[in-house]
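call fold target=Short coiled-coil protein
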Amino acid sequence: MDGSSKEEEEDNTFTSIPLTDDIDHSSRILYPRPKSLLPEMMNADMDAVDAENQVELEEKTRLINQVLELQHTLEDLSARVDAVKEENLKLKSENQVLGQYIENLMSASSVFQTTDTKSKRK
């Protein structure tokens, strides 16, 4: 087994794939390949999307907080309205009691009695 038979065994085991550099390009005119901006554009686009998402997320958060604050304010106002209604009913009831008391005092007092003017003249 000499060195050449070993090379033949290796050639049989592996398939040779030509590389692009191995192909003869002498008939083609080669121009410098422009640098691909795609990865940079993708990164810039992703940064823009991330920035848009961040702005959108901040806006949503702000709106949610504003809605929650308005809900709490509405609950507070509703509770205040209920308290004012209760106070109003209580005061109306007290006013009725006081009104009736004043009427009773006036009817019992001679100062507020209606006088007959004909009877006094006689």
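return ok
Confidence is low (pLDDT under 50) at residues 7-11. Residues 38-108 form the longest helix (71 residues).
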